[in-house]
Amino acid sequence: MNFHTRKWVKPEDLNPNGTLFGGSLLRWIDEEAAIYAIVQLGNQKVVTKFISEINFVSSARQGDIIELGITATEFGRSSITLTCEVRNKITRKSILTVDKLVFVNLGADGLPAPHGKTEITYIKDQFKDDDALAD
């Protein structure tokens, strides 16, 4: 799993206990997962369909730097299933895990549409064709 997105836990992200508010963290996860799905499916029109059990393992406090890791685990006809882990950037201690996040690819009509993808696309592979054109 690659951890690309990092967040700095600030005072406005805290709950009354002085730890990271779960709702803020879930908002960050949903946004990051949607971006991941958009990049993988090559379509800006995706929607969150399902999020499985969310396991809060430990907490984060003000000043902590956390990182979100997301990877695709399954490609359906019009969907993509992801998994997520959030951890402390410095200590690598796990903060949260989500086994399944399912996003649906939408067509121009707003209805589920086949995406034709079957495996993870890596950035380095997306530009191979562009390199060949430059030669």
From TrEMBL:
Locate the HotDog ACOT-type domain: which residues?
1-109
Give the source's domain of life in one word.
Answer: Bacteria
Which N-terminal residues, if any, form the signal peptide? none
**What are the alphabetically sorted keywords of the record?**
Hydrolase
* UniProt-listed Gene3D superfamilies: Hotdog Thioesterase (3.10.129.10)
Give the family per the record. Answer: Belongs to the acyl coenzyme A hydrolase family.
Q: What is this protein called?
A: Acyl-CoA thioesterase
The scientific name of the source species is Zestomonas insulae
